[in-house]
Amino acid sequence: MNPLRIGHGYDLHRLEPGLPLVVCGERLEHDRGCAAHSDGDVVYHAVTDAILGALAQEDIGQLFPDDAPEWKDADSRLFVAEAVRRMHTAGYTLGNIDVTVILQRPKMSPHKAAMRDNLVALLQTDPGNVNLKAKTHEKVDSLGDNRSIACHVVVLLQTT
Fold first, then answer.
1. Which of 31, 98, 146, 147 could anchor a disulfide with 104, C-beta 3.0 to 4.6 Å?
2. 11: annotated binding-site residue?
């Protein structure tokens, strides 16, 4: 068994008027939200894929298909919880995680502490193992035009 495993996760969703914007478990006030089958939480989706990728397992779309009625409007915490369960079953714990959210607006700064706390609890780790950053896209392409939101995640797993 490899003592260290690295995974990368990425997610992107269109932003559309009249939908809720949920980012890292926090509902943000905004005039638009994620167009998605579940709650569209890009951070939780990317975290799920990063952990599953590090384990060389199926991705989020295979485990939780977007055409399955049971996942319609689902809370994406369920997806992260399943990835964490699989991580522990495989004999790993989180070494550290680095999350980058790309969103033109609203500003993430007022919400980052709560978001980080949400990740710490879901990942069953220490706060020092979780980094969360937010970037704009400098008004370039759909991200910069506030028509989409994206997230990149890198995770390091280590044997228990």
1. 146
2. yes
